[in-house]
């Protein structure tokens, strides 16, 4: 289904999703509402380690003795645009993992545009804010593990996941809250593109575009097990995201063990109706958390954070609200 | 002579990356991979004499070539990494492996990027054929530049695909200078130029291209050279500028420093090899 056709029939699709179809292949099922926590973080000068650790514990995340991989979103380096997950957020989450007893914590990314890892996880600026025990891994250049594609949308038989992704006990997705010029919004699910090494897929990962970005996101969401999500919404990006847009402060982190619940909540904070965003609706066939009633919202009052992200005209029909 | 000693230091460090069972990994602790192995072999060619392990590395690299002439990303995933065929062709040429070189070049000639109709939102000619990273996808700056470079090094710079490849690269050049990984701009806004793709494209275009066509990119690299921090960026910037006779002494100094970090954590062997090649004057890429 094309995006335009989808938007025309959005109400029907949203109704179908709301019926709660059985999951088909995903490990994630939730009989009760998915917890999503909004943590206020007004600026990047604040260390959130303790608060993040508390939320992770409350969400039942057990890290003691585990190998944890943090997957931030590094796309492009621009001095004036908030394109990437901020190092302060990455550091706070990494240090929270150490606090909770993780045996190994690594930050890994297979950046989709910049091949030079100096502009992503091997940047000295990131290294300087991380505890020495935290390793930084360039996932673009290294070994991969072929994993059968557990979805059927893209037509790809398998994905080559970076070995560090395949071997991590716990994978934590750390995307940036942004609009996306092809998909509407880019959050936890889209962040999974960065688990695929560039030496297998190129820069950008054009094969995934050819197979349909939404299709590829859905297949990755079925194939890659994500254990926790933290969305950097301290300063997001509105307009012509994910690269050419403008800064949009929201002042919060969105935390959840459930990727779709985190994405749907973040979309509402951004002023988008997630039930009008094609890939989120499609993901609701096998992941919980699309509808407001699927989510148990905790932490900061969302009415204090909710805003309205500007977007390209093509995506204005996806907007909605107020939601809270 | 500082440059020579820096180059030898880099070569010594590079040999320490070689794995006992063959191949060079991108990073210490990793598995063998085609790209750092290929660039290491080109770096070894700059040495004044034989380099330890060179023959074994060449033998390992040779096993990565498929019957169709393409070269795999590593031994395990033979159908992946066709973009590595171009640097492999340069290696085969430099090491006198004519049959392997010819099969690689034949494969490159048969590999075309997807094209589409032009789009008024994108200031580029989508109908020009270049080279993709992956089969059945669009052409991008880096694989196209490598293919053009390989054809030139192997004496096929006048091949129609090389001619079109140069046209592709010039079309993708950002009007104010430099190359992004693909598009020069979207919706009347220029994209950011990258150091590495700019240096590589300039290197590939040094043959059969008028300097006036690439002057904005040369100026871009030259005027922004103090901003380049990474080993990868420094190496390709030196190669790109010097390919056009632009001296880059300060860049060379900083490149040498970047090749000798306090720790090897995060040191990429492919970038180190590119640094060695750059300090040697990039002669392995001469037509």
Based on the model shown, name its key terms.
heterodimer; A: 324 residues; Rossmann fold; ten-stranded mixed beta sheet; two-stranded antiparallel sheet; B: mainly alpha; Glycosyltransferase; two-stranded antiparallel ribbon; 1% strand; globular
Which helices and strands occur, and which strands form pairs?
The complex is a heterodimer of chains A (324) and B (287).
Chain A: H1 3-8, H2 10-18, E1 34-40, H3 49-58, E2 67-72, H4 87-99, E3 104-109, H5 124-129, E4 134-138, E5 144-148, E6 158-162, H6 163-167, E7 170-174, E8 176-180, E9 184-186, H7 198-201, H8 206-210, H9 213-223, E10 228-238, E11 246-256, H10 259-270, H11 278-283, E12 295-299
Parallel strand pairs in A: 1-12, 2-3, 2-7, 3-4, 7-10, 8-10
Antiparallel strand pairs in A: 1-11, 5-6, 8-9, 10-11
Helix pairs in contact in A: 3-4
Chain B: H1 2-15, H2 34-44, H3 54-62, H4 85-94, H5 98-110, H6 141-153, H7 160-172, E1 185-186, E2 189-190, H8 195-204, H9 211-223, H10 231-243, H11 249-258, H12 269-279
Helix pairs in contact in B: 1-12, 2-3, 2-4, 2-12, 4-5, 4-6, 6-7, 6-8, 8-9, 8-10, 10-11, 10-12
Short description:
The complex is a heterodimer of chains A (324) and B (287). With 324 residues, chain A is α/β, with parallel strands linked by helices.
Word description of this protein:
The complex is a heterodimer of chains A (324) and B (287). Chain A has 324 residues and is of the alpha/beta class. Chain A has a single domain, classed as Rossmann fold (3-Layer(aba) Sandwich), CATH 3.40.50. Chain A is 27% helix and 23% strand. In chain A, the strands form 2 sheets. In chain A, strands 1, 2, 3, 4, 7, 8, 9, 10, 11 and 12 form a 10-stranded mixed beta sheet that branches. In chain A, strand 10 (228-238) and strand 11 form a beta hairpin. In chain A, helix 3 (49-58) crosses helix 4. The longest helix of chain A is centred in the first third of the chain and has 13 residues, at 87-99. Chain B has 287 residues and is mainly α. Chain B has a single domain (2-285), classed as Glycosyltransferase (Alpha/alpha barrel), CATH 1.50.10. Chain B is 49% helix and 1% strand. A two-stranded antiparallel ribbon of chain B has the order 1-2. The radius of gyration of chain B is 18 Å and the shape is globular. Chain B starts with a helix and ends in an 8-residue tail after the last helix. Chain A binds chain B through residues 76-78, 113-119, 122, 127, 136, 138, 141-144, 146, 160, 198-204, 206-207, 209-210, 240, 244, and chain B through 25-27, 30-31, 33, 35, 73-74, 77, 80-81, 83, 114, 132-134, 136-138, 140, 142-143, 181-182, 186-187, 189, 192, 194-197, 229-233, 266, 268, 270.
